[in-house]
Structure formats: structure tokens, C-alpha cells
Amino acid sequence: MDAAFSAEQGEIRRTLREVISKRCGPDEVKAAVRTPDGHDTTLWTALAEQLGLPGLALPEACGGVGCTAAELALGVEELGRALAPTPLLATAVLAAPLILALGTAEQRAAHLPRIAAGELTAALAVPGAGLATALGLTGDNRGDWAGGGRAGGVQARPADGAWRLYGQAEQVIDGHSAGLLVVAAHAGGFARSRTLLFLVREGAPGMVRARQTSLDETRTQARVELRDVDAELLGSDDADVPAALAAVGDVAATVVAAEAVGAAERALERTVEYVRQREQFGRAIGSFQAVKHRLADVYVQVQAARSAAYYAAWAAGAEAAGFGGQGAERAGGLALAQGLDALRTAASEAVQLHGGIGFTWEHEAHLYFKRASGDDLLFGPVHRLRARAAERAGLFGPAETGASGESCASGASGASGEPAEATEAAAVEEVV
Which of 93, 162, 232, 317 is 20 to 30 A away from residue 56, measured at CA? Predict the structure, then answer.
């Protein structure tokens, strides 16, 4: 594994940071989430047309750039620093890879170039609140989470040579504004029970979408109701949908982990800036030993989370390229658990050490805490992410087929590869 970034990867990070710093300050974020779309459409256009971000990890044959999950994670890490509200996660991380993996040649040609160009946004809709289950992050996704032939979920039935969907999906990220929905539905009843994916276009008769009030307003969610809606089957009816969802889930967990690292780092930076300026008893509060140690603990945790996220991104890219080996598989869940822990800790300390202004609505510290809590609800909880990783690795029993006994060992060290204990000794003086 080469831990050094290439010149192209460094340029992605630098360019994105420049664009985000100019266009996505705290006031701009708060204004963008209150628009009907829930994000800044001008910023999204700039990210698509100038930087090609929606198509970063799509093949060049589909209009994309042809990069790997590592470059996508680096880009999303920069977006996470500002909590930039964009449809990138829903479109490029969740929906587009499923179309690429399972779609027919006609479906890929019809949708992926438009997604890569930023002309079309998409979202993944799964029944109920089972996104983490559907992606295989917190348990085996080959169960009946899509409906299982019983009441609830989303049911699919063939009618007059087409498919029709009936049911409801909650917590659909950016589902209220997406031009294309990838809907997971149960088909076949008890005789041939299976989960399939369907494409539903914006404005389809019988589909009702409503934006929900979510804990994290920078990550918009919607409820999608499907009342006998015409749908197009994605790919064939014998596709291994759970396997495709699990593969997408690992990359999605990696990307969200990198995003959490970016947010945690920015929350820590803001806190350090504040404690250097805020004075109490005639001296800056950052000079107090207790404050130094609290921030040093956060620093070590953020660096460990970054190490885990980068390893997971490398592992996902290596597996996609076919040379990663068994040890490089499925590190996303562990990286996500560590990233969410780091973000929650960094945001909590930011609220505490900012004192009286830390919990006010006008300050942005609460947005970082809500991002950590919101992602925990969407993709976790953290203890189940770790339990699933342990189950796959066979720590408490036989390992699953295809799972590796190796874990994200780099998650216990800093970005430099040093043990966390050695890093902490130097962190006290480096942070403050």
C-alpha cells in the first residue's frame, strides 16, 4: 500500500478547498438548506461543470473521469469540512454505482452521462428506515427488509408487460428533488421471493414526495410514497441485488467516513482558533493544561479516523481493480464507525469549549454535532457497524464466505502510521 497521495489527488483536494471556501461559508450553508432544493444549485453546477465531481468515480465510457473511491473520498472530505449541502452522496455514491453495476447498456447510456455532467440527480429509496440494513452495513441484507411478501415495504408486481410499485420509503437522502429514483422493492411473493431495483422518474403518476424535517438539516431527507407507480426494472430480474447493494454500501461507508473526518477536522480547527483568543482570568483558555489535553485527545482521534478512512478508500479501489486480495475487502464499516466517533467527539468539545455561544442557533457548532448524530441514525449505529465488521471477520465465530480476518489495523494509528499513544505525546504542543 502506497500511503502517499499523487499530484492529481493533491490537486483535487486543493481545488475543491478553494471553491468551497469561497462559495460555502456558514451563512451560505444555512441559506442553502432552506431553499426548496435543499442545496445551492449554483454550487452544484460549479462542482459538476468545472470540477467533474459527480462523475469522478464513473468510467470515461460513461462520461465520467475514471478515478477510484480514493479520489472520491478526498473530494467528499473537503465537502465535509464545510458541511456543504449537495446531492453528491445520493447521486454519485449511492444511485449511480447501482445503475453502473446492474443496468443494461441502454440504461447506463441514458442516465450515467447526464449524472456525470450534473444534469441529473438521483437517489436510492429503500423501504422504511432500513438504509443501513439494505447496504449491508449493520447486518446481512439478504433478509426481508424490502417487504418480504408481507404488508409494508415496497411491493413490485408485473402488470401488462410492465412493473408497478406500491409502498413507502422513508429517509430517502435528497429524495424530494432527485430527478431519478432507484427504488428497492420486493417481488415474487413467497413463491419466488427476491429484491429488485427499479427506476422511477420525476413526476411519475402516483408518486408523492415530501421533504422531511430531519435532525441534520444539511443532509436533506424525504418520504416517498408510491401508489401503483409505473417503474422500469433496473437490469434483469435475476440480478444479485443484495450483493450489489453491499458493494455500494462499503464504498458509501468509506466516503461518509472521509466526510466525517473532514467535518471533525474543521470543528477542531475552529475550536483551537477560539481557545487561542478567548481569555479568562487574564490568559487565553487554550493555555490551560486541561483544555490542551482535551483538544489533544480530539486530535489523536481525528488522525486515527483519517488513517482508517484512507485505508478503506485504498482497499475499495484495490478491490475494484482486482488486485486488493482478501485483506483489502470491506473496510468501510469500521472506518465509518471510527469517523463518526471522531466527529461526535470533536463536535461535542467544540460546543463545550465555545462556552455560552457554543450551543446557540447562530453558531455553526451545533451543525457538526447534528451531522454526527444524523449519520449515526442513517448509517449506524456505531456499535452495530463494529459488530457487523466483527461478524464478517469471524472474531467470535466462523468468518463469512469472502470476508477477511484482517481488520482496518491502520485505524489505531495516526495519519503518519505511528501508534496513537506516540502521536498523543506530541499532539498537546502541536494542537494548541
Answer: 232
Distance, CA of 79 to CA of 329 (rounded, Å)? 26
The answer to whether residues 212 and 175 touch, using CB atoms and an 8 Å cutoff, is: no
- Is this prediction's pTM over 0.85? yes
Q: Is the peptide bond before 54 cis (omega within 30 degrees of 0)?
A: no
- Look-up: residue for cell 449524472? 115
13-42 residue pLDDT tens:
899 999 998 889 889 999 999 999 999 999
Query: Which residues, in sequence order, are CB contacts of 382 under 8 Å at separation 6+?
Result: 337, 340, 341, 376
Residue 192 DSSP class: T
* Measured distance CA(125)–CA(431) in Å, rounded: 42
DSSP string, 105-116: HHHHHHHHHHHH
Instruction: Give me the phi and psi of 197, to 5 degrees please.
Output: -110, 140
Which one, of 355, 351, 347, lies nearest residue 372 by Cα?
347
Distances 198 to 2, 71, 186, 298 between C-alpha atoms, Å:
39, 29, 10, 43
Would you tell me how many other CB atoms lie within 10 Å of the CB of residue 36? 8
Give, in order, the Cα–Cα distances in Å from 180 to each of 9, 200, 270.
30, 6, 38
> What whole-number distance in Å separates Cα of residue 260 and Cα of residue 76?
9
DSSP labels, 45-75: HHHHHTT-GGGTTS-GGGTS----HHHHHHH
Given a contact cutoff of 8 angstroms between Cβ atoms, the answer to whether 325 and 317 are in contact is no
Measure the CA–CA gap between 384 and 429, rounded to whole angstroms: 35
What whole-number distance in Å separates Cα of residue 389 and Cα of residue 52? 33
| Residue 85 backbone dihedrals phi, psi, to 5 degrees | -80, 105
Residue 22 half-sphere exposure toward CB, CA atoms < 13 A = 10
Tabulate helix, strand, coil % of the chain (nearest 5).
Answer: 55, 15, 30
| pLDDT at 361 (0 to 100) | 79
pLDDT at position 425, please?
Answer: 46
